[in-house]
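Regression test case RT-17, inverse folding.

Input:
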């Protein structure tokens, strides 16, 4: 039997109140670490690449290695089909690039038209959905502005503007007209982490209103899957509450990047004569595994395959 598709796991997550982690990567050491920990914990996993990450790594290379890793996890106890590993093109900004990702074999794509006027966002999202749907690829859309595009440490308090939060009625209109499968929401989350390591609380009240607006509406908005971006540094209790309200996918990038680059830097500083990548990358690889382990525990996705 083949790997069950991503929709199967999103539905299971919603029913059982847990969430699937999307972990971003831009090199194979990170990719391998994410999959190795997910496989050990028997957790379905989404591997994310932004446009920048995928241009560095290669769209076709990412797909080929997803297939190799799926196959390899069969022998690690993930069953005949291998670990459910899915690839998402994160924050795509044009139809053309998302089409390339779909053609390459990605399982899902995220169109980020959140900086466009709603009508324009709807228009391009519809094109993406039309192309993706009959190829069996899921589409994530976005309404409301999620903090910043950069993945970094903020030394000052990050200001969330009220007008950037997702408006429940706009979310309803967007989902109804575009028929996306997943919706990324802006509820006080942002990409990156405050220097303290803990970000301000999420606006769970807004999340509950968005969820209610979508579930109550007639038509095709009821089955939408809600996504939380900017998962690094988010207070853990807020993550647990957000999952209870309806979040089923959570994106993590900055914590992985900090762990990887910090450990690599430390190792090379302490061992300036070490030039062998398979030796100097070990600490960095282990540090990515530790972040993934903590997040899978927090999201409750272990032992769900
Ligand atoms: P963080 O960098 O805050 O973890 O956010 C990642 C993200 O949302 C990628 O889409």
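Golden output:
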């Amino acid at each position: 039997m083949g790997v069950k598709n991503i929709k199967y796991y999103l539905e299971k997550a919603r029913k059982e109140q847990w969430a699937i982690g999307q972990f971003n990567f831009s090199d194979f050491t990170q990719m391998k670490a994410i999959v190795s920990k997910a496989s050990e914990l028997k957790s379905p996993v989404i591997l994310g690449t932004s446009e920048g990450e995928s241009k560095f790594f290669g769209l076709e290379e990412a797909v080929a290695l997803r297939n190799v890793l799926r196959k390899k996890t069969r022998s690690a106890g993930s069953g005949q089909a291998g670990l459910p590993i899915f690839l998402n093109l994160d924050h795509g900004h044009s139809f053309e690039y998302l089409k390339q990702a779909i053609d390459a074999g990605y399982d899902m794509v995220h169109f980020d038209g959140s900086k466009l006027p709603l009508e324009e966002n709807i228009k391009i999202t519809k094109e993406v959905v039309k192309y993706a749907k009959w190829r069996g690829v899921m589409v994530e859309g976005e309404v409301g502005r999620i903090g910043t595009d950069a993945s970094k440490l903020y030394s000052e308090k990050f200001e969330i503007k009220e007008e950037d939060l997702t408006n429940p009625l706009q979310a309803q209109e967007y989902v109804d007209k575009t028929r996306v499968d997943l919706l990324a929401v802006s509820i006080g989350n942002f990409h990156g982490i405050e220097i303290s390591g803990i970000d301000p609380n999420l606006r769970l009240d807004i999340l509950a209103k968005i969820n209610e607006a979508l579930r109550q509406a007639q038509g095709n908005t009821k089955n939408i899957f809600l996504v939380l971006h900017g998962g690094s540094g988010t207070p853990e209790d807020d993550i647990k509450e957000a999952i209870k309200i309806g979040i089923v996918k959570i994106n993590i990038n900055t914590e992985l990047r900090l762990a990887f680059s910090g450990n690599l830097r430390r190792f090379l500083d302490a061992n300036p004569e070490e030039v062998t990548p398979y030796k100097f990358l070990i600490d960095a690889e282990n540090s990515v595994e530790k972040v993934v382990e903590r997040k899978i525990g927090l999201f409750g996705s272990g032992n769900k395959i």
